[in-house]
């Protein structure tokens, strides 16, 4: 179908869904989810907020994300899978708009929570849309492209951060509001309105699902914990030393650029297996965390850390979508949501634990411990895959 006003005449169904999904996920994850940490120093100075208030607002963003994750499924069951993706775009636009105008902690908190919820609303429903509208051979690529939209969002966020150096931090949030609104419109035009799946009288295999998703859920637990530690403290590492002001925006842009390789996660997973790709991603993140320790004194170390992290971060999130869809194609959205909820809880806990141990341990040692956790997780996952394949070969 040709949509007037959009250059989509030559796009296949895969291209339409991939483009719209990448736009929505890119704004929700690559921009709205990380903009608070990026603009935190300026918010602190402009609004005169205490560390306690700023910390509570930061925690509230994860609560909004978790709420979106948990509510997206019921909304999709009632109104179709496109509904939560559109609502996520609206929440991102409204939330970012409120932050742009905020002059009080209350309005700031409401805006940040709304913007933070966008990621929870939009990500998992695309798994359902892809599995119900595209043939099996195209699903992995579409899911990888959608997830890798986060990279484009990070690049744009870095550009907005540079612009804010010459103006106000509010420009960052105004740009996010505009991007979220645009992505929501693109989503409505390009993504088919998938009807709610008919409810069937079938047993709910909760225990079976838990068994099938045990390994990707464990991966999600470690992956999101180490990722959030990186994003939480990378800017502090760069800002605490003698690096130029543009170093932090450049870090985000570099992560976004190198993260574009995540679009190949689907093909890579078909060739070597999703669990092996996930293991390599954890190893990459571990190396990036270790390189972050000297990054405050060296632009080369900072650039290398960001480049390696971008590859591991984006491929790692893309492969999780592919992995869960492969394991449970009949309930791809629910499977992905389950792993994302585990990751969301991990994301809440990790900064709290880090904040508790930094006074005694120090930030550098904390990053090295987190790097070791990522490397250990990658090694265990790789070993688990080897053991499973050996058992399959013996059984065959």
Report on this structure.
There is one protein chain. It is built from 15 helices and no strands. Helix 3 (51-79) packs parallel to helix 5. It has helices spanning 13-32, 35-47, 51-79, 82-101, 105-133, 136-165, 170-190, 206-212, 214-239, 247-258, 265-272, 274-292, 299-327, 332-361, 363-395. 82% of the residues lie in helices and 0% in strands. The longest helix is centred in the last third of the chain and has 33 residues, at 363-395. It has two domains: 7-194, MFS general substrate transporter like domains (Growth Hormone, Chain: A), CATH 1.20.1250; 206-396, MFS general substrate transporter like domains (Growth Hormone, Chain: A). The model is unreliable at 1-10 (pLDDT under 50).
Q: What is this entry, summarized?
A:
This protein has 396 residues and is an all-alpha fold. The chain has 15 helices and no strands.
Tally the helices. 15
Distance between the termini: 47 Å
How much β-strand is present in the residues?
A: under 5%
Largest sheet, in brief, is: none
Q: What's the SSE pattern? A: HHHHHHHHHHHHHHH
CATH architecture of the largest domain: Up-down Bundle
């Amino acid at each position: 179908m040709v949509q007037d006003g959009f250059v989509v005449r030559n796009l296949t169904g895969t291209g339409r869904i991939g483009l719209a999904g990448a736009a929505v996920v890119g704004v929700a994850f690559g921009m709205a989810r990380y903009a608070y940490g990026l603009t935190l120093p300026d918010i602190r100075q402009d609004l005169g907020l205490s560390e306690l208030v700023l910390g509570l607002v930061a925690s509230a963003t994860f609560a909004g994300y978790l709420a979106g994750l948990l509510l997206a499924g019921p909304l999709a069951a009632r109104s179709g899978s496109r509904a939560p993706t559109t609502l996520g775009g609206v929440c991102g636009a409204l939330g970012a708009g409120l932050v742009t105008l905020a002059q009080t902690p209350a309005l700031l908190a409401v805006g940040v929570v709304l913007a933070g919820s966008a990621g929870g609303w939009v990500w998992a429903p695309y798994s359902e849309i892809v599995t119900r509208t595209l043939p099996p051979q195209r699903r992995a690529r579409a899911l990888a492209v959608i997830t890798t939209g986060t990279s484009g969002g990070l690049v744009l966020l870095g550009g907005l951060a540079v612009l804010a150096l010459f103006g106000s931090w509010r420009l960052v949030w105004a740009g996010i509001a505009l991007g979220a609104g645009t992505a929501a419109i693109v989503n409505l035009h390009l993504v088919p309105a998938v009807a709610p799946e008919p409810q069937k009288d079938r047993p709910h295999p909760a225990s079976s699902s838990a068994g099938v998703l045990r390994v990707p859920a464990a991966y999600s637990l470690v992956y999101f914990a180490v990722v959030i530690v990186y994003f939480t403290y990378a800017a502090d590492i760069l800002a605490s030393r003698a690096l130029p002001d543009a170093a932090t925006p450049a870090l985000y842009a570099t992560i976004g650029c190198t993260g574009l390789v995540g679009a190949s996660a689907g093909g890579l997973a078909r060739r070597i297996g999703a669990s092996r790709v996930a293991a390599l991603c954890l190893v990459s993140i571990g190396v990036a965390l270790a390189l972050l320790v000297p990054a405050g004194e060296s632009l080369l170390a900072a650039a290398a850390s960001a480049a390696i992290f971008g590859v591991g971060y984006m491929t790692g999130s893309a492969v999780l979508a592919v992995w869960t869809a492969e394991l449970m194609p009949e309930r791809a959205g629910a499977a992905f949501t389950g792993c994302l909820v585990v990751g969301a809880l991990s994301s809440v806990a990790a900064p709290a634990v880090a904040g508790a141990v930094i006074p005694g341990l120090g930030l550098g040692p904390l990053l090295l411990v987190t790097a070791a956790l990522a490397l250990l997780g990658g090694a265990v996952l790789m070993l688990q895959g080897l053991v499973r394949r050996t058992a399959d070969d013996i059984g065959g």
